[in-house]
Amino acid sequence: MAQAAATAAAIEHKAYARIGLLGNPSDVYYGNTISLALGNFFASVKLKPSEHLVIRPHPFHDLVHFNSLDHLVNRLENEGYYGGVRLLMAICKVFSNYCNNNKIDLHQGNFTLSYDTNIPRQTGLSGSSAIVCAALSCLLDFYKVRHLIKVEVRPSLVLSAEKELGIVAGLQDRVAQVFGGLVFMDFSKEHMDKLGYGIYVPMDIKLLPPLHLVYAENPSDSGKVHSTVRQRWLDGDEFIRSSMNEVANLAVEGRKALLAKDYKTLAALMNRNFDLRRSMFGDDVIGALNIEMVEVARQAGAASKFTGSGGAVVVFCPDGPSQVELLEDACNKAGFVIQPVEVIPSCLNDIDLKTLSST
To answer: 32 pairs with which residues across the strands?
Structure first.
């Protein structure tokens, strides 16, 4: 048995970073979003059949051997306490429980899981969920149950694994990473209550204009103040409720603008998205560095907003290459990294497509 496991083929999957183009953070407030899979960065997970079930620590992200006390402290200050091992363990638990609860039989084989990632930390590009998403894909193939777990359900499994670890987030990141490509998402309460997930509509990535990603390599001073927006929304605060509804509607209008290739409107919607977020959350929560990234882009005449909760912004230069040059110069002077956005097309294969609900 051990020899058979050692010679069995390894399974490897990637999951990409994501950009929230419009509508975030309304996904956790029964809103709408448009998100895309970002090919510039990804996490990869490898599953190899083995005699025992092993979760292998990453040599850098799960470091437990240090040269000195200073090395340990510097590592924790720059990278935090947590690597990917806990994420892999959590998705294994959530996957197993889901299959048990839904009477999906799993064979008794064991495996070794390992991972790697190049997604920058603290940039709002969904690095943790990418690891979980890639691991879920490996488990689906190892146990040969891809056809039994609907594509729409998988983002909820990824989110459940993160919630096991106290990570607070919404579904949109996980939807973008499970689906790939460009996706419009409707998280209305009616759908969420009835289905347990939203309505997810893939869009043609060719509808997108050229976009750029701007981020800080050391985003340590970004938004450390706790936000009260969630509680105010739950308390029925009229300003928060109406502002969040407007944010959600930006994705609806953005979908229309993309379908019409009305990029002037798209730019205005992107800017409005950030302005609404700023008015709700306040500058102390958003953080000075995040505000500077947005303003550097706007000073070049570009549209900009967060890719997620902060740490990076997505930028659109409606005036074309000459404006991109201005943006690059401004980012270089400010010390920000800038690169063209590479959009990954749909990740779904034929088996996945057969599990999709007809909408």
So the answer is: 186
Q: Which residues pair with 43 in a beta bridge?
A: 15, 117
- Catalytic residue (choose from 27, 105, 141, 173): 173
Question: Model-level pTM?
Answer: 0.90
In this structure, whether the domain defined by 211-340 belongs to CATH 3.30.420.10 is answered with no
Q: Computed over its alpha carbons, how large is the radius of gyration of the chain?
A: 21
**pLDDT (tens place) for every residue of the chain, 359 residues total:** 444 454 579 999 999 999 999 999 999 999 999 999 999 999 999 999 999 998 988 777 776 778 889 888 887 777 666 678 999 999 999 999 999 999 999 999 999 999 999 998 878 888 899 999 999 999 999 999 999 999 999 999 999 999 888 887 889 999 999 999 999 999 999 999 998 899 999 999 999 999 999 998 766 544 445 688 999 999 999 999 999 999 999 999 999 999 999 999 999 999 999 999 999 999 999 999 999 999 999 999 999 999 988 889 999 999 999 999 999 999 999 999 999 999 999 989 999 999 987 64
Q: Tell me the C-alpha to C-alpha distance, in Å, between residue 76 and each of 62, 80, 123, 359.
A: 11, 4, 17, 46
Q: Is 173 a catalytic residue?
A: yes
Options 3.30.230.10, 3.40.50.2300, 3.30.70.260, 2.30.30.40; CATH of 2-206: 3.30.230.10
